[in-house]
Amino acid sequence: MAQQLHERIQSSSMDMKLDALKDLANSSRDITFAQEFINLDGISLLTQMVESGTDFGDLLSFTLTAFVELMDHGIVSWDTFSVAFIKKIASYVCKAAMDTAVLQRSLAILESMVLNSQDLYQKVAQEITIGQLIPHLQGTDQDIQTYTIAVINALFLKAPEEKRQVHAMFSICLKFSFSLVCQNVIRSNKPINDEMAHQLYVLQVLTFNLLEDRMMTKMDPQDQAQRDIIFELRRIAFDVECDSNNSGSIENWSNHVNPAVDFTQIPPGMLALDNMLYFARHHQDAYIRIVLENSSREDKHECPFGRSSIELTKMLCEILKVGELPSENCHDFHPMFFTHDRSFEEFFCICIQLLNKTWKEMRATSEDFNKVMQVVKEQITRALTIKPNSLDQFKSRLQNLSYTEILKLRQSERMNQEDFQSRPILELREKIQPEIMELIKQQRLNRLCEGTCFRKISSRRRQDKFWYCRLSPNHKVLHYGDLEESPQGEVPHDSLQDKLPVADIKAVVTGKDCPHMKEKGALKQNKELLELAFSVLYESDEYLNFIYCVWTDGLNALLGKEMTSEFTRSDMDTLLNMEMKLRLLDLENIQIPEVPPPIPKEPSNYDFVYDCN
């Protein structure tokens, strides 16, 4: 097969060549085939086809796909490729309009080149710039965005130390947001040129202040810049000038003497302070409200804004794996981070308001700080599972995840976890089930004893006539009779002229089997009644016709038959789950054994028994 495909991909017929490349792309996943094709110098043939530049569209797409699949086996070294091949692959990435499949494969090839060879990194870095990669993040194709960020991360990991600061800044930008320049380009529909790319670089340096470098480098605790930001936060909250030598804390920092020390822990480092300043400046009303309402409280329920912001930033870094190396096993993609210039800071602003709201719902004190953070983390991770497309959608999802709702979800999940599928729990459910079924049975019979007014059903039309039926208290006789109008309450037994002994009932039929539903006219005009209809068959093949489902259960229970209606199943699930929760309430956080404890051996004697004589 390798020999045949090697010949077919060189065919002069475009159709035959396309079919051959399709087969090659599929077959190259198999390592045995890949080894044979590579032995035929197939990799060199594919690179020559790419360098020639004669193929495009599907031909080029399948060529690159086959190349990627073959190289993934690790048989051929990446150092063997020429500068011409690298330039050609880079040109596909740099083009403004390129086939999506070709662009995706080209980005994958560039990432592998950078990661697998330091020499190729130098060559790729000369052909690709950050400004040329940014436009690929502006589209809506998730794969293209993911592969683009993968190339950025690869360039950062392989960059020399002196260049990492610049790459780190762009890595933060590309993970968390679009730049202001990109937003302007989107609005104007103009392509990014070198001048715009340079503006992007300058703007991002000024805007993000090299946040990644701050996170990775411990700052001097006495750094005046940190202290100035803290005093700026206080000035915004209270609209007063603070003494720059006063290091006291009204935001409840962990270190009350020198709050700047709180930002030396990595992560979150200075990123937490930057988030707080962004929140204070861009969401000033919410910031002032949170600080003032917690600073003026006389009880012990104030939420420490400073400490909360630091821990929240650290938590967000953990959730989004900020600062960790890229992982091939992680496929989480959050499109909302591509919808705002400062999406991570906006993400923080939403979450810090959530934290304050949850704190109040839990009526927490400083001793409950860790419990609150656990609940907030659960709220955030649950909201992220739906992969919101925008920050507003994420915020709306959080509004439905209050502390009360989290408790309900935890309880529901606890009922479905493995402990509740264990043998002791299942045995308990089986033991309780007959009691619950008896309870439902008694409720149905009580309903029959109360009686019900039914509307008479005609095959031609619905008539405004009624009849009433009820079960005697001793459960032996059905009393029924016609009524002129619907009664306001119960109808006494003695006013119902007809009787039907329960012992005479032969069967209860439902749905289409009922006589009053078999008639063509009735079935056509009363389809909505079909599921509720039932009839009682008694002596001489006569029927008593009903339209009411609860009575079906009651009559079956009266006759000693199984109650099979959907209402019975629903009531059983509800009551059984409630009873299980009540009985297991005292066993929270206690491991339930799979098997009962062993019965101890009998004692050697019973002399310890008290002698009543």
TrEMBL record:
<protein>
    <submittedName>
        <fullName>Engulfment and cell motility 1 (ced-12 homolog, C. elegans)</fullName>
    </submittedName>
</protein>
<dbReference type="InterPro" id="IPR006816">
    <property type="entry name" value="ELMO_dom"/>
</dbReference>
<dbReference type="GO" id="GO:0017124">
    <property type="term" value="F:SH3 domain binding"/>
</dbReference>
<dbReference type="InterPro" id="IPR024574">
    <property type="entry name" value="ELMO_ARM"/>
</dbReference>
<dbReference type="GO" id="GO:0032045">
    <property type="term" value="C:guanyl-nucleotide exchange factor complex"/>
</dbReference>
<keyword id="KW-0053">Apoptosis</keyword>
<dbReference type="InterPro" id="IPR011989">
    <property type="entry name" value="ARM-like"/>
</dbReference>
<feature type="domain" description="ELMO">
    <location>
        <begin position="225"/>
        <end position="384"/>
    </location>
</feature>
<keyword id="KW-0729">SH3-binding</keyword>
<comment type="function">
    <text>Involved in cytoskeletal rearrangements required for phagocytosis of apoptotic cells and cell motility. Acts in association with DOCK1 and CRK. Was initially proposed to be required in complex with DOCK1 to activate Rac Rho small GTPases. May enhance the guanine nucleotide exchange factor (GEF) activity of DOCK1.</text>
</comment>
<dbReference type="GO" id="GO:0005886">
    <property type="term" value="C:plasma membrane"/>
</dbReference>
<dbReference type="GO" id="GO:0006915">
    <property type="term" value="P:apoptotic process"/>
</dbReference>
<dbReference type="Pfam" id="PF04727">
    <property type="entry name" value="ELMO_CED12"/>
</dbReference>
<dbReference type="GO" id="GO:0006909">
    <property type="term" value="P:phagocytosis"/>
</dbReference>
<dbReference type="InterPro" id="IPR011993">
    <property type="entry name" value="PH-like_dom_sf"/>
</dbReference>
<dbReference type="InterPro" id="IPR001849">
    <property type="entry name" value="PH_domain"/>
</dbReference>
<dbReference type="GO" id="GO:0048870">
    <property type="term" value="P:cell motility"/>
</dbReference>
<dbReference type="Pfam" id="PF16457">
    <property type="entry name" value="PH_12"/>
</dbReference>
<dbReference type="GO" id="GO:0007015">
    <property type="term" value="P:actin filament organization"/>
</dbReference>
<dbReference type="InterPro" id="IPR016024">
    <property type="entry name" value="ARM-type_fold"/>
</dbReference>
<dbReference type="Pfam" id="PF11841">
    <property type="entry name" value="ELMO_ARM"/>
</dbReference>
<keyword id="KW-0581">Phagocytosis</keyword>
<dbReference type="InterPro" id="IPR050868">
    <property type="entry name" value="ELMO_domain-containing"/>
</dbReference>
